[in-house]
Automatic annotation (TrEMBL):
<keyword id="KW-0808">Transferase</keyword>
<dbReference type="GO" id="GO:0032259">
    <property type="term" value="P:methylation"/>
</dbReference>
<dbReference type="InterPro" id="IPR030391">
    <property type="entry name" value="MeTrfase_TrmA_CS"/>
</dbReference>
<dbReference type="InterPro" id="IPR029063">
    <property type="entry name" value="SAM-dependent_MTases_sf"/>
</dbReference>
<keyword id="KW-0489">Methyltransferase</keyword>
<feature type="active site">
    <location>
        <position position="405"/>
    </location>
</feature>
<dbReference type="Pfam" id="PF01938">
    <property type="entry name" value="TRAM"/>
</dbReference>
<feature type="binding site">
    <location>
        <position position="280"/>
    </location>
    <ligand>
        <name>S-adenosyl-L-methionine</name>
    </ligand>
</feature>
<dbReference type="GO" id="GO:0008168">
    <property type="term" value="F:methyltransferase activity"/>
</dbReference>
<keyword id="KW-0949">S-adenosyl-L-methionine</keyword>
<feature type="binding site">
    <location>
        <position position="309"/>
    </location>
    <ligand>
        <name>S-adenosyl-L-methionine</name>
    </ligand>
</feature>
<feature type="binding site">
    <location>
        <position position="378"/>
    </location>
    <ligand>
        <name>S-adenosyl-L-methionine</name>
    </ligand>
</feature>
<dbReference type="InterPro" id="IPR030390">
    <property type="entry name" value="MeTrfase_TrmA_AS"/>
</dbReference>
<protein>
    <submittedName>
        <fullName>23S rRNA (Uracil(1939)-C(5))-methyltransferase RlmD</fullName>
        <ecNumber>2.1.1.190</ecNumber>
    </submittedName>
</protein>
<dbReference type="InterPro" id="IPR012340">
    <property type="entry name" value="NA-bd_OB-fold"/>
</dbReference>
<feature type="active site" description="Nucleophile">
    <location>
        <position position="405"/>
    </location>
</feature>
<feature type="domain" description="TRAM">
    <location>
        <begin position="1"/>
        <end position="58"/>
    </location>
</feature>
Amino acid sequence: MEKNQIIELEITDLSYEAMGVAHYEGMTVFVTNALPGETVSAKILKVKKNFAFAKIEQIIKESPDRVNIKLNQWVQTGLASLAHINYDKQLEFKRNQVVNLLQKAHLDNVEVGQTLPSPEETGYRNKAQVPVREVGGQLEIGFFRRHSHDLVPLTNFFTTDPEIDRVLVAVRDVLRQYRVPAYDEIHNEGEVRYLDVRRSKATGEIMVILVCLHKDFPQLPKVAEAIKTIEGVTSLVLNYNPKKTNVILGKVDYLIFGKPQITDQIGDVKFRISPESFFQINSLQTPRLYDLAIKKAELTPDDVVVDAYSGIGTIGLTVAKHVKSVRGIESVRDAVKDANNNAEINDLHNAKYVTGKAEEVMPKWAAKGMKTDVIFVDPPRKGLTPEFIDAAVKTGPKKIVYISCNPATMVRDLQEFQKLGYDFNRIDPVDMFPQTPHVEAVTVLERTKK
Ligand code: SAH
């Protein structure tokens, strides 16, 4: 097999990144945008030892699950790399990811629920972070073509709240009008690197964050005046990111006008969210995810609860009224400030959050003899560490509710808990990210030893 060769392939599977999978002369070939059941003629792009990457030249036999989306760019850019499959099949794809991981781990007795569909299949995101670059002599917003930094100009971001798209385009036009240069990542020059726009569905507040190479630029006062007139915008923040890096946000924020936080609401609890804090992006699906997690916890009024990887305290503060106390751990200082402030504005005086790494704080708590009843964990993609798992178990919880955005590390961690006297019998996938391959899942571990 060699580069640029054109071959006919039968697609038999979808990889976890949503690439079509085919087998050809002992090689596994990953074909972008191809679907199981399809026959395609494909061009080989890259050859490795046992596998290769290819792209579709022509679809010879099309899958009945293929949907013809208006803008092929959404799939091309990886903004919505599952968008070419109908929604029911997307849900099935996500469930299968979990089933396959359990099979590999020989956990055959675990039931996997049907993926909980998102109330909105498009336009569900309450936040967009889009790169700003110069394309053809003009400042553009858009998304990078997959595996590259070529900007594909876009004005409709498909998975984002249309109100956010409207603001993104309006801000782009302001930047063009005042000739603010786009960021040039090759020379680390120019000015605006990203536009980050967030909107609260509950209050309608909109925060615009200009991610800039400098703390200030000559056109800023005029740009700010113009952004103030865009309907719905309640704050403007300049995020200072001077480094040559792919990390989107820098560490310092300057409030240019409006409120320093945006206010949102989950159930009957209000949340103020700072620019550096994590907040779940699918506003309508988040309460459904939490409901599922909280049901599994079967909380009682005497429970001592830990909310680990807490963000701004959304899970802990949702349950605080129904339990004895909540202790939260989160590594981002601003998020912890938000969490404690959110406890206060909601009159939840039994909840306290601390800044630190969960894998360091939990062992300290365990060493001090802390006892817990229920621990919620909601870690980033890399999952938990053995230190955290050990310490969590030492505090003796009846239940550990695990919310995960990466089922691979979740299954790994669940097996660790099993070795320490905890067991689980069901995982429920929840679709937080329609049109993308991301899988969210929830499970509860219960103590098997007395
Ligand atoms: N439970 C929250 C946040 C989940 S996202 C919610 O539902 O909104 C995961 C959070 O873990 C992020 O806020 C991130 O800043 C935090 N985090 C990442 N690594 C961490 C670590 N080692 N210790 C504690 N928190 C961490």
